[in-house]
Amino acid sequence: MASPVGEDNWVDFVDHQLRGATDLENRVKVIETFRRAVQAEPGSLKVWMAYCEYFWSLYSDCQPGSDAGWPLDEQHLGRETFTLDHALNLWQEGYEAVQYRLSDSHQLWNRWVSLEMELLARTATEAGVRRITHLYKNRLAVPHAAWDNTSQMFSSFLSEYNRANYESEMLHVTANARDAKRLYEMRDPWEMKLNQAQKAGDIAGIKAIMTEYIDWEIRQAKSKKDHHTLTNMRICLGLFSRALTGIMSSDEATWLNFLVFVSTWHSDVKMGRVKIPSVILPNMLDVLQRAVHHVPWSGTVWARYILAAEEAGLGFTDIERIKHAATSCAQLDRDGMGGVLEMYSAWCGYLKRTAMNPNATEEAVDLAEVGLPSALEDVRHWGKRRYGDAYQGDPNFRLEKILIQFLTEKKDDIDEARNVWEQLSGIPLHANSYDFWLAWFLWEMLVFASTKSKNRSPTPATVAQGLRVPSFATRVFIKALKVRTLDWPERIMDVYLQHCNDYELAETLREAQDTIYKTRKGVARRREREAAQAQAQAQAAYAAQAQTQAQAQAQHQPQQHQQQQQYQQQQSQDHPMTDAPQAGTSPGSKRKREDGPVDEADDGAKRAKSETIMGAAELKRDRENTSVFVRNLPEGITQTKLRQFFREYGHINNIDLQKSEGAPAVALIEFRSPEDARTALLRDGKSLGESVIQVSPATDCTLFVTNYPPEADEQYIRDLFKHCGDIHSIRFPSLKYNTKRRFCYVSFRDRSFAAAATQLDGKTLEGGKFKLQAKFSDPGHRQVRQGAQAEERELHVNNLPRAASEEDVEGLFQKAGKVVSVRLTRNMGGVSTGTAFVVMETKEEAAKAIEILDKVIFGNHPLKVEVSKPPTRKTTATSRADGEAEGSPESSASGSGPSHVSGPEIAARTIAILGIPDTMNDARVRSIVAPIGAINKLVLHPQHGGAVVEFADAATAGKASLVINSTEIEGGKKLRVGSVGQLFKEKAEKRIDRIDLPHQQPQKKQDNSKASKKGKTAAELMPPPPPIRRPPVLGKAGAKRGLGFVVPVSKAQKEQNAAAAATKEGSSSEKQVNGNGPSSSAVGPAAPAPPVAQKSNADFKRMFLEGKK
Question: Which pLDDT score is estimated for 405?
């Protein structure tokens, strides 16, 4: 009968056996079963509790005076078998097995210590008090969730049995328990998360939190900062026990994580890198035996079991027994032939290593000679039985490689090894793979190199010209190029030609060139056919999409007619794709600069040319047609490993690797050209690590999405398309050079998901205010903008009277046609700036308004009327109170006069928010700030990675500083609060979404004596100039004087100098003109000049008026 698996199954199994245990013999059998159960689940609290409770009940039942009803002879034997010492030792053994289960180990310990207390209450002895005191001290030194409760129990115990030493014992325990409390406090957040998930019944959440918790514990156990290495390791083992005896008992990834953890610690202890007793670590073979029982379908675990048995020095019979247990398991091929191949690879590797050992016996060699072909035959039959004729073997031909190595190196049977290669070449799975042919070629070259000095060579020698050539290696290429379905013939041809250049004779080289020339022509025609087929499939997909959209529009046309009219009316006022120009500026004239650093405008001017170049470069970067999806990636995959795996197939621009809990990682790899992307598809079905990856094109998987609400973030977009399929990534544009951009690219993991998402194209959002656009991304297509400004219906009116209202302007322009809207721009005081934007109903009416109203006198002001033009660039975004584009809250609401606000008052209620990503627009920033209080003005500065926010009062600004600081936003980034000056010193984060471009690192200062002179200019190589000595100014010590320095003057001296200047102004100026003043004297030392006072604005005004006279 097979043993149970899992703590629940063991408890049920023992409980069933226990119900039939009515005599002493059967009770002993139950104890033996319990012993097997704790060996199978050594960290199970449930099994240990049941075991200890049952043994204690047997001890109690066999005591004199018990009412259990045992016969006298069984009572006598039972007292000899189930003794008190055995029972207490069992409780201690169970506690030691589960003591580092932080969350629930107190259940067993509390029960144990309660029994100890009962015994002490019956016979209170000094030894008993010392024993329980020792138990409490040890328990309080171990981190656990119920530490406070345990401490309270110890306090009560001391109060009753050791009151004299109460204070000293408690002080001693508290001092020793500091580390235990600190270690648990570090883990308390994880325990709280697990408790919340358990209360909510969220199974997936529990697994995800437990996985993250385990990874964190592994890092703590390996940390060199914490000196509690042994305790951290034990806590990690306790957490693994909780996971592997609980909800994750059948999780293969967790078991592999545990195996690697234990194996690594064994290696560290063996090599002396960690100083802990090796007996503390679980035995590797015991752990693997438990693992194969819980996840019998894992070929990787079975392979590790065989390898660990070989490392432990077990004999052939024992290892063969493990192999037979694996093949007898009905679940080994549950996930396909991968597990079977993993296990057989470990088995064949063991046979090969045993036979190739220099001290190997004849029996070991015979076992390998028989066992290797037998294993190949077993796998072939297994695959045929499961998949029929569709099974073609292992894509990586691992078992065949082991057999070839054995035949080549141990048996020296080259012909038989070559026969294995020949058999593999007859299978389409291998014949179509260039990897197979290159592996065969390399083997032939190794054989050629190793047999040069031998008399007999498997490669025939060519007598002509005295050369020996590797003819068998050349024949491999000739045979490979005859396969019409070879996945990468270009690579084979390149290596073939290079090989013939290096080793072959002239005649063979010429024949190779002829063969390659003819083959290249055939490959070119094949590539053209493949491209035509791909284009036809794409066109069919586009046609199907257009037909589906047309049908959907026809069904919803009556309902959308009314919404369309409302949408057109709202577009004239607030079109989502055409934001209003900045307040107080004219699209045709220079714009008013925002409050900021002086060099911001210069930076923009310098960017004008670079932006054009960047735009052209982005058009060349066709992500949609140069990317591929790579699925089923192995655990622990990195970008570096992916680059190495695909580096032979083309230049990689970027890799977007997405990892999720409980699922294999998926990568989106962008190549330089579509040709490179198509070549990378040849890796489909290849093995990477322990997984067979899937490579598929990412064409038609990305959507261009726009016209969504301005406040929408990544989560909003995901929720919008969540029913369509898995989303790989969402890419928002940078707003550094244009803050009006509001669109994103949504990449789905399958073309069908993206096609389903296009059904939302035209969907109205927020009651018809926005009409969503979701179309397949096409980098060559430029969207035609809509709205009043794009349709030339919006007019820009300059030089209006300041007193003119919206009604006055509307009445004036009604002479030319119907006016849709009028918007006056106002300053912070609510006063009109004399500029307005007028939207007419048609383009013709706008042209008529220009014709009859341009240069017309209106309120003694000649008007300037012109078509409103979009700004060339907009590096900042401004929004006013309540989301308005213009006016202060007071002027916009009530139309009252200007409100005079001082500069310090505005500064007191203004803060700067730092750390804002350049993909976050002003509406999203406003949604974070608005709940705090009323906002007067918000200016977004993407180039500096922040925003300036003016609140209604200083109190709200102070509250916002506290709330916003350290607020976490998308991507785990945190906002900071600073001053406006600090903001303009910041630079936005540089995002480089290409791994082929180096990140610019700040240059480190080097010592000139150590710096290399290579590449320095002549000026840099010249010696430094000698120091210049300057004499003291004015020949006097003290404060510096002369040009550029002002002497401090007291208030009394200022008044005296001003009076003297007023009386002597005429004479002194005349003397200076004639050259007779003191300043013109060149003889003798100059008299000390009297201190000159700084002139005030009143002095300059008086001088200016006197000069006019």
Answer: 95
Classify residue 164 by its DSSP letter.
Answer: G
H/E stretch holding 482 reads: none
Terminal Cα distance for the chain, rounded:
123
Quick: pLDDT tens for 200-220. Answer: 989 999 999 999 999 999 999
Helix, strand, or coil (residue 668)? strand
Return the H-helix or E-strand segment holding 854: none
Q: Above 80 in pLDDT, residue 552? A: no
Residue-wise pLDDT for 367-379, tens only, equals 999 999 999 999 9
Nearest partner of 231 among 102, 100, 139, judged by Cα: 100
Mean pLDDT of the chain: 81
| Strand bridging mode 877-880 / 935-941 | antiparallel
CA distance linking residue 794 with residue 572, whole number of Å:
9
Q: Tell me what pLDDT residue 461 has.
A: 45
Distance of CA 694 to the CA centre of its chain: 22
Helices (H) and strands (E) in the chain, counts: 40, 23
CB 108 within 8 A of CB 151: no
To which residue do tokens 């622990």 refer? Answer: 636
From the number of C-beta atoms within 10 Å of its C-beta (0-12, 13-18, 19+), residue 978 rates as middle
DSSP string, 374-419: HHHHHHHHHHHHHHGGG----TT-HHHHHHHHIIIIIS--HHHHHH
In contact, 438 and 480? CB cutoff 8 Å:
no
Q: CA-CA distance, 581 to 559, in Å (whole number)?
A: 34
Distances (CA, A) of 109 to 49, 132, 134, 664: 10, 12, 13, 41
CA distances from 985 to 597, 735, 861, 878 (A): 9, 18, 43, 20
Query: In this model, does residue 604 exceed pLDDT 70?
Result: no
Strands 946-951 and 935-941: antiparallel
Phi first, then psi, for residue 41 (nearest 5°) are -130, 70
The kind and range of the H/E element at 1091 are: none
Ramachandran assignment for 586, one of left (phi > 0), alpha (psi -120 to 50 degrees), beta (any other): beta
Residues 6+ apart with CB under 8 A from 378: 327, 344
Query: What is the pTM (predicted TM-score) of this model?
Result: 0.59
In sequence order, what are the beta bridge partners of 78? none
How many angstroms separate the CA atoms of 1035 and 1025, rounded?
26
pLDDT in tens, 448-483: 988 765 544 444 544 444 468 899 999 999 999 999
Tell me the C-alpha to C-alpha distance, in Å, between residue 1072 and each of 62, 1078, 1080, 1109: 129, 8, 8, 20
The answer to whether residues 749 and 728 touch, using CB atoms and an 8 Å cutoff, is: yes
**Residue whose C-alpha is closest to residue 282's, from 251, 255, 253:** 255
- Give me 237's structure tokens: 């083992």
User: Which of 666, 639, 734 lies closest to 995 in space, CA to CA?
Assistant: 639
Q: Which residues contact 456 (CB under 8 A, 6 or more apart)?
A: none
Q: How far is CA 240 from CA 216, 277, 279, 874, in A?
A: 12, 20, 18, 56
